[in-house]
Design a protein that fits this description.
This protein has helices spanning 36-48, 106-112, 124-127, 130-144, 147-167, 175-211, 231-237, 239-245, 266-269, 272-294, 311-323, 338-341; strands at residues 2-11, 14-19, 25-29, 67-75, 81-89, 94-98, 101-103, 115-118, 217-222, 256-261, 264-265, 299-303, 327-332, 348-353, 356-359. The protein is α/β, with parallel strands linked by helices and 360 residues long. β10 (256-261) and β11 (264-265) form a beta hairpin. The longest helix has 37 residues, at 175-211. It starts with a strand and ends with a strand. The relative contact order is 0.18.
């Protein structure tokens, strides 16, 4: 998948902007505050329905405007074209369109714009809590196994209702029904994740062998309950704890992906630069595995590519981005060595200044 045309209206500091990106590498150059990160953010919004920056959706709407719109023409690997649009107004109302038809669920749009983001803050994938790694894992499962989305939606509804009943101390009368639903959907989510990691991790380990050959990495999925028992049995075992705390203390919403290098937690062993290279490998390989399984190429968004990476690591990362033959958007304050590091036959460069974009 790649973006053939992108148009923004009243998005951040862009009153109106249009660009025709190249199929592979696109360099976005501009000073701090010029809007280069906002360009990446607009593409991210098409893939996730939200920003990757702090704040609310209202901050995406240009000052004194009523709504923002992001529109794109995207092309599948098969050559099939789609038009996608995302609009949100001050009240929070969202309008989604695919090929000029209204769309209710964001999942349909996300499948057409599979996006991987790499910023200096992406290191939180490793340093942050379990939720960060669950979201990473579930992005891959969502795009590779389409039945996962409905299972997750159904589980989320059951979890919300179960927690509400626990909090209100009204759970006992309805325990049998909700625990049965909870366990059924929870076990399915567990299976989706295990199947995904079974195929994904060998590909990742090969990439890490090139990126960080001095370490032997191991990955452990904790499902969110004792692996020696079923989820139904775990719910019975933890029923007093659930009632005491007023929420569900076991289940796939508590899952954790643990990462070790040479037998130690990577957070305690690797430098920040090495952790960033580990994150780069995780994101790159998720895109590669998506293409391997479905034929779909993801779009990579990279903000401040050189931060905390030494020259050798920069070269490894950039070579891998180019070798992926995916569409890549890279923002930077100045060109520096990027043109050599990310050179392809159709590399394009765009200059951003005061909310305007010009192709160089």
């Amino acid at each position: 998948m790649y973006i053939e045309a992108l148009a923004l209206t009243q998005f951040r500091n862009f009153a109106s902007a249009k660009l025709a990106p190249g199929k592979t590498v696109n360099l976005i150059i501009g000073d701090n505050g010029s809007g280069k990160t906002s360009l990446l953010e607009s593409i991210y919004c098409l893939g996730f329905g939200r920003s990757f920056r702090p704040g609310t959706y209202k901050q995406l709407i240009q000052h004194e405007a009523e709504r923002f719109t992001v529109f794109a023409k995207v092309i599948e690997q098969s050559g099939r074209r789609h038009q996608v649009g995302y609009q949100r107004d001050e009240s929070g109302d969202v309008q989604l369109r695919i090929d000029q038809e209204k769309e209710k669920r964001f999942a349909a749009l996300a499948r057409l714009v599979p996006v991987q983001l790499m910023t200096p803050e992406s290191i939180e994938l490793i340093l942050g809590g379990p939720k960060q790694r669950r979201q990473f894992m579930d992005w891959g499962v969502f795009h590779v196994e389409h039945s996962f989305y409905n299972d997750w939606l159904n589980f989320s509804k059951v979890l919300k209702q179960r927690n509400s009943l626990l909090k209100q101390r009204r759970f006992e009368a309805e325990r049998s029904y909700w625990d049965k639903q909870f366990a059924a959907y929870g076990e399915r989510i567990k299976k989706h994740r295990e199947d995904y990691l079974e195929g994904f991790l060998p590909v990742l380990e090969e990439r890490l062998g090139a990126f960080l050959p001095q370490y032997k990495f191991e990955f452990y999925l904790k499902n969110g309950w004792d692996r020696e028992v079923s989820l139904s049995e775990a719910l019975i075992k933890h029923q007093d704890q659930d009632l005491r705390y007023g929420h569900s203390t076991v289940g796939p919403h508590k899952a954790e992906l643990r990462i070790q290098a040479n037998g130690e937690d990577v957070r305690n062993l690797l430098s920040r630069g090495q952790l960033k290279l580990l994150v780069a490998a995780l994101k790159l390989v998720q895109g590669e595995y998506l293409q391997q399984k479905t034929g779909v190429q993801c779009i990579y968004l990279v903000d401040d590519i050189t931060a905390e990476l030494d020259t050798e690591s920069q070269t490894k990362f950039c070579d891998a981005l180019v070798a992926s033959e995916s569409q890549v958007f890279v923002s930077a304050i100045e060109m520096g060595d990027l043109n050599q590091l990310l050179q392809t036959p159709d590399t394009k460069m765009f200059h951003v200044e005061h909310g305007t974009v010009k192709e160089q």
